Each structure stands twice: as C-alpha cells, then as structure tokens.
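Sanity check

After download, print the first record. It should look like this:
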Amino acid sequence: MRDDRLFLEVPVASRYVVRILEHRLAQTGIPPYQLGLLTHIRQAQPVTPTEISIASGVAPTTLRDNIQRLVDGGLARRMPHATDGRSYRLELTARGERMTRAADPVLAECYAAVERQLPRPLADYQAAVEELNAALERALAELEAPDTTPERQREGHLRS
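Expected structure tokens:
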C-alpha cells in the first residue's frame, strides 16, 4: 500500500515555518512571504524575475504582484536588463537591505530553536529538502509536459 503522507506532511511543515516566522519577524516589519523574496534578491542581485521564479518555485504571475509590492514599498528597484528589453533586473534598495539585515539575527534565532529540537544535524534535513524539491520540480515538469508516447497519442486521437 502506498504511503500518502508526503503530500500531507510537507504542507504542514510549511505552515509551521510560516507561523514561526510570522511570530518572530513581526518586530522587523517584514512578512514571511516578503522575506523569502527579499532574500532571493539579496543573494543574487541583480536578478531577473525568471531567475527568482526558478529559485523559489513561485509562479511568475504570483511573483509579479509581490515584486510590485516590494518596489512600491521602497524595498527593491527595477533596473533595465542589459540584453533583454522585455525583462528587468531587481536589486534591493538601501531600505530593503537594512530590513533584510535586521531579519538576519531573528532568522538565526529561529534556526537555532528548530535545530535544538532535531535528532540529527540541520544539514541533513536541508539536504533532504533540497533533494525533495528537485524531485518535485522534475515531477511537475513531467506531469505538465504533453504526453508524446505513441500509446497516449493514439488514446488522445481516438477520443477526438
């Protein structure tokens, strides 16, 4: 019998992370969803929205609104893309950099609290999550791809 817990447990873990961050980040004024985006920008700036989408797994349409909030809030700025006139690059403003730096000790405290509760080193869990995310990304690509096997093409043709 298949064990179906993975798709149930991963969202639970995500909700706990959000609750921890909401509780501890309140003092910085950064909502958890913005901190993730700000961190992606900070680590790779200047960075394109496409690069952020790939790194974060967040759909470009969702990112567009969140990026606009960061720009409107003076936390990030758009810069022209040197080789692609349809795109742009993002970088943090001085205010955005200050806010993300203010979150660093809070994040360190959150990581330490979680690590104290783990039976194995945090790095083991990080590696497992990275492997899981890579597998989920590949599975999504496989499931979203049009099925080009001859059997599926015949089935689709017969249904038409």
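If your output differs, re-run the checksum step. Summary of this record's structure: The two ends are 35 Å apart (CA to CA).
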